[in-house]
Amino acid sequence: MLTHLPLSALSDTQALRAHIAQWKSEGLRVGFVPTMGALHAGHISLIETALRHADRVVASIFVNPTQFAPGEDFDSYPRTLEADAQKLVEAGCHLLYAPLASDMYPQGFATTVSLDGPALELETEFRPHFFAGVATVVSKLFQRVRPDVAVFGQKDFQQLRVIERMTLDLDLDIEIMGAPTLREDDGLALSSRNAYLSAQERQTAAQLYAILNELKDRLEAGKPLSECLFQAREKAQSVFDSVDYIAVRDEATLSAIEAHGARPARALGAVKLGRTRLIDNLPVHGLNQG
Ligand code: PAF
User: Fold this and answer.
1) 206: which of 4, 60, 242, 245 is 20 to 30 A away, CA to CA?
2) Which atom of ligand 1 approaches the CA of 60 most closely?
3) Residue 276 domain boundaries
4) Which one of 179, 206, 238 terminates a domain?
5) Which residues form the catalytic set?
6) Does ligand 1 have an atom closer than 6 angstroms to the CB of 45?
7) CATH code at 220?
8) Terminal-to-terminal C-alpha distance of the chain
9) Using one digit for the tens of pLDDT, what is the confidence trace for 131-177?
10) Predicted TM-score of the model (pTM)
């Protein structure tokens, strides 16, 4: 449990390594859930998934500065370490690692993971800094935790594909699992950033799910991709302050598709509502999959 470490030791990388080494020497399988904190039920479901696939589970909390551009919400990102630690204890997580920025990025730090493939377009078009920051911090966390399995939310679907690709390409020998998105009753995907929404915006926010759901239904009914996308984008533009993208991509590679056919696809969207950026995605079954 978290009480293995005194609170002051939660950021201690040597203590983390000692725990992991002990577990590995006992032949235990280590699961890992990296987070930026402000934990909600979606994060807890990732911990539960990890617990089903590992003997010991480590969660990290680190609001990673390198995945935020100047002017984004790094300073205002919710930081709720004590409440998060309590939730992790209740979920049965074995260890919380919350490194300091000075330890992750010491003076002179000069290395960044460079990405292609699933990192191209979509989020990258609107947040060009994002995936290099994510991939760099996740590979550092992987080196420190040395997990056998790591769990990421499908809510950040492009991130999941980027991490899978990086893990494969860099021979990291870690099983990457994607866990389903948890939703509010009206379909809004759980996200730490939902805390930014006003009461009125909260009502509107669920429209992103509704729009993607309609897009999915129309595609699965065999309607042409270009027509479905046009309709979904028009609707999103009428509801949200701005639309970064509404797209349908190959589910496995996230590469562009000309038409929806036999292969599974993914409908993805990112919109802005007030000061909140919402992202979401849904699977679209191939036309012969029923
Ligand atoms: O998904 C997140 O919370 C972050 O991008 C991650 C994976 C913890 C890296 O900072």
Assistant:
1) 60
2) 8
3) 192-287
4) 179
5) 43
6) no
7) 3.30.1300.10
8) 45
9) 999 999 999 999 999 999 999 999 999 999 999 999 999 999 999 99
10) 0.96
